[in-house]
Amino acid sequence: METTDLLKIASEHGSPIYVYNSEKMISQYKRLQNAFQKVKHLRLHYAVKALSNISVLKLFNSLGSALDTVSIQEVKLGIKAGVPAQKIIYTPNGVSVEELEEAVKLGVQINIDNLIILEQFGTKHPKVPVCIRINPHVMAGGNTNISVGHIDSKFGISIHQMPHILRIVENTGMHINGIHMHTGSDILDIEVFLHAAEILFDAAENFKDLEFLDFGSGFKVPYHENDIETNVEELGEKLSKRFNEFCKSYGRDLTLAFEPGKFLVSEAGFFLAKVNVVKQTTSTVFAHIDSGFNHLIRPMFYGSKHEIENISNPNAKKRFYSVVGYICETDTFANNKMITEINEGDILAFKNAGAYCFSMASNYNSRYRPAEVLWYNGEAHLIRKRETFEDLIHNQIEISLETNVVESV
Ligand SMILES: Cc1ncc(COP(=O)(O)O)c(C=O)c1O
């Protein structure tokens, strides 16, 4: 997929628009598979939350990927995309018992992350195999919003509560078939990950009928040239060796599972937005795009930095710009960044826009959510239409109100 293809997509389908390169998704999937080729049974669950378009789910299904889901709606999307329920792990956090029951009916792998639910669930469904999400209390992840394994985190059952887990399992006679952890996103230090893995191995020793160990995800991807990324090859080498040793001592070949989201789709995505206004002020030059944090919230939510390129004018001289949106609050995508000269009407491409971008988009300011395009087999395929005014009011109910205006004299 070339820059000219991106420009053509923007001119054909309008802006703002998300474009995903399936070739990059496929190569990232294979890279991870290769890194863990020494493991006999590897299962990669694509994390639906990162980018949940059904065509993307179908793409991963075609590669043989399993899915990681966190809501019943993600489960239903996965099943609709053709993924067998047994290949879907469902890891909710603080959901209602009714939602869990629905997941049981759909036949997905349940992953439980709190003691009360574990007890209730085991009492009601002792025969349904359950995975347990452990919190190893290892601090990993890019920032506090995406670091979830630490002591104050709401996720998982504390490793220190293992005696309680074992008591519940014994009392209910429930079947634990997997142990899970997810320490957070953007893990830089492989040693930290391996340390958390040791805690998982120790935890696993307590259960005799395991089928898999799920190490979650958190692989960091590069956001700019020379940026650091998780060395998945090195991690693959080290963790595979340790995992194989563990299987030997456990007495059975288990499945090693991961749940990558960002690693598989982040770099595949581009967000294209048009510059509506170039505004010179006394302090900077603002490039106002036809979008805002309603479509791409990561820079404001996580402080994430998406590289921005002016693909309409890539060879011009670079100048300083602050790229901002049209929202009625501060929505700064980039502050005084060097970008090739911007004119009104130019298309700016935001990189790393595959993961947690469209899936976090909203209708704030009553704007339409953008269209999405998948670049597949050398062609652009529209995989989501831009919303319309009808979509905005579709579920709204207008009630009749009495007119109660007091005429002023
Ligand atoms: C339980 C779980 N698994 C997998 C993921 C995917 O993480 P990443 O996108 O960093 O690969 C997340 C992300 O929040 C998660 O909470």
Can you summarize the main beta sheet? 9 strands, mixed
Distance between the termini: 67 Å
Mean pLDDT: 94
Hetero groups in this structure are: pyridoxal-5'-phosphate
Query: Would you give the CATH topology of the largest domain?
Result: TIM Barrel
Low-pLDDT sequence parts: none
Overall outline? globular
- Radius of gyration, taken over Cα atoms and rounded to an integer in Å: 24 Å
Helical content band: 25-40%
Q: Architecture of the largest domain, CATH level 2?
A: Alpha-Beta Barrel
**CATH homologous superfamily assignment of the largest domain:** Alanine racemase
Q: For this structure, what is the CATH class of the largest domain? A: Alpha Beta
Number of strands: 18
Helix and strand string, N-terminal first? HEHEHEHEHEHEEHEHEHEHEEHEEEEEEH
Description of the structure:
Belongs to the Orn/Lys/Arg decarboxylase class-II family. LysA subfamily. The protein is an alpha/beta fold. It folds into 2 domains: 23-263, TIM Barrel (Alpha-Beta Barrel); 269-353 and 370-386, Lyase, Ornithine Decarboxylase, Chain A, domain 1, CATH 2.40.37. The protein has 12 helices and 18 strands. It has helices at residues 3-13, 22-35, 54-62, 72-80, 97-106, 115-124, 162-172, 190-204, 232-250, 262-265, 298-301, 389-393; strands spanning 17-21, 41-47, 66-69, 88-90, 109-112, 130-135, 157-158, 176-180, 212-214, 255-258, 269-280, 285-289, 308-310, 318-324, 332-340, 347-350, 371-376, 379-384. Pyridoxal-5'-phosphate (PLP) binds next to helix 10. Pyridoxal-5'-phosphate binds next to helix 10.
